[in-house]
């Protein structure tokens, strides 16, 4: 057994920290309500900063309110190895979404302190502002500014339902920092998170080695035929927009099944005009949501979707207009970071599987500018964005140990290298 294998996080301390944070802005049913940049969010941040200072970290804050807590390494010219997530919650948020990733990183720092481990590169904990997007839209806005996906003035000018701006609220709670967002160095970023889905639990795996996040394309589709009498219009020569749309749904279903299990395609909304029992429908609007983890495959699915729906429209003598309204390309995490996580899981002996994130995370933004990957642990029933969200202490501990050893691998540690060789 190598020396580094004996290094383990403290399950009870991690659990107690998560429970203590849940008490800041408690929900009515056991979860939390800490909407971004509210007094509750400020109190949660203050508690986190206090804990980090007690662990010997120095704090820096950027002008999107992102917090970095730093533990020095032996070579502080190296860019830091960073881990973290978000502390804001949904209005009926759980205790774990985001919070786990932040406090898991804090637990790693505390463990390094306990065992007096010196890393070569510095290690840091990050808290990203307004990940949830429930107070200020869009979600993941501050990691998005960091990654250059949003302009800062745009982000600062976002308003909540009462017309308060993100910038004013940052100032009000005293978290408008002086570092320019995006300039803080990140050598690599790891984000631990509950899965928020049922896959790990269903397959009885403790650790999800997250290799990326799937890509999404959204379309608005309008099919135009001709209204006419349901009784006196013979079947040949009808231009029935709904019959054509129905066939298009079948085409989309086949397309997704041809790309199973990774490809998914959903028509979730449909409006029929004139929506009258005895009139042949002259116009139909429907939506398409198509997803796949591989960008080339997603592009090819998109191409087939457009061609096949156009051919279908021709057969039915109707017109189809398909507008793409959103495209979020898939994300592939960094092989080096995935490798560090895989190696840690291997050494620790947890059951594991590779997994693609179905949801968006700060890591999915940062991976565009720094080496990044994620670690998933199971949550009960896959339930999240719900006050009853829950996870097992032993699984949370396992994720903590994986994060610890992956960070050590990335940051390097001469003392451990010597004792384990
Ligand atoms: Zn989250």
**In terms of quaternary structure, what is this?**
single chain
Number of strands: 16
Taking Cα atoms only, what radius of gyration do you get, to the nearest Å?
A: 25 Å
| Chain-averaged pLDDT | 95
Unreliable spans are: none
- The percentage helix is 25-40%
Taken from the alpha-carbon principal axes, the silhouette is elongated
Task: Give short descriptive properties of this protein.
single chain, 421 residues, alpha+beta, nine-stranded mixed β-sheet, five-stranded antiparallel β-sheet, 14 helices, 16 strands, elongated, binds zinc ion
Please explain how this structure is put together.
The protein is an alpha+beta fold and 421 residues long. 37% of the residues lie in helices and 21% in strands. It contains 14 helices and 16 strands. Strands 1, 2, 3, 4, 5, 6, 14, 15 and 16 form a nine-stranded mixed β-sheet that branches. β1 (58-61) and β2 (67-71) form a beta hairpin. The longest helix has 22 residues, at 295-316. The model has no long low-confidence stretch (mean pLDDT 95). The structure holds zinc ion (ZN). Zinc ion (ZN) is lined by residues 86, 97-98, 131, 193, 361.
């Amino acid at each position: 057994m190598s020396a580094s294998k004996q290094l383990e996080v403290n399950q009870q301390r991690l659990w107690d920290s998560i429970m203590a944070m849940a008490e800041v802005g408690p929900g009515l049913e056991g979860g939390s309500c800490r909407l971004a940049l509210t007094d509750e969010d400020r109190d949660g941040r203050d508690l986190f900063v206090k804990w980090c200072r007690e662990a010997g970290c120095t704090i820096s804050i950027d002008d999107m309110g992102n917090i970095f807590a730093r533990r020095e390494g032996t070579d502080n010219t190296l860019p830091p190895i960073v881990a973290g997530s978000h502390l804001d919650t949904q209005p009926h948020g759980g205790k774990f979404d985001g919070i786990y990733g932040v406090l898991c990183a804090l637990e790693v720092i505390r463990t390094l302190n306990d065992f007096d481990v010196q890393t070569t590169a510095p290690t840091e904990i990050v808290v990203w502002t307004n990940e949830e997007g429930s107070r200020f839209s869009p979600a993941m806005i501050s990691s998005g500014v960091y990654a250059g996906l949003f302009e800062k003035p745009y982000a600062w000018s976002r308003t909540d339902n009462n017309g308060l701006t993100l910038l004013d609220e940052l100032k009000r709670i005293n978290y408008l920092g002086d570092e320019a967002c995006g300039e803080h160095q990140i050598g690599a970023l790891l984000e631990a998170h509950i899965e928020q889905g049922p896959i790990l639990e269903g397959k009885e795996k403790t650790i999800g080695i997250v290799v990326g996040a799937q890509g999404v394309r959204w379309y608005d589709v309008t099919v135009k035929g001709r209204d006419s009498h349901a009784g006196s219009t013979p079947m040949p020569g009808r231009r029935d927009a709904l019959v054509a749309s129905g066939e298009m749904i079948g085409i989309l279903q086949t397309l997704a099944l041809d790309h199973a299990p990774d490809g998914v395609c959903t028509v979730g909304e449909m409006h029929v005009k004139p929506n009258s029992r005895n009139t042949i429908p002259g116009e139909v609007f429907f939506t398409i949501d198509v997803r796949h983890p591989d960008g080339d495959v997603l592009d090819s699915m998109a191409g087939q979707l457009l061609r096949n729906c156009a051919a279908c429209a021709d057969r039915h003598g109707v017109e189809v207009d398909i507008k793409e309204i959103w495209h979020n390309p898939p994300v592939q995490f960094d092989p080096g970071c995935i490798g560090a996580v895989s190696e840690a899981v291997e050494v620790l002996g947890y059951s594991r599987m590779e997994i693609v994130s179905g949801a968006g995370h700060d890591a999915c933004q940062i991976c565009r500018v720094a080496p990044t990957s994620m670690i998933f642990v199971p949550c009960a029933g896959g339930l999240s964005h719900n006050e009853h969200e829950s996870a097992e202490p032993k699984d949370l501990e396992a994720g903590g140990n994986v994060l610890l050893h992956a960070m050590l691998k990335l940051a390097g540690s001469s003392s451990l290298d010597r004792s384990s060789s």
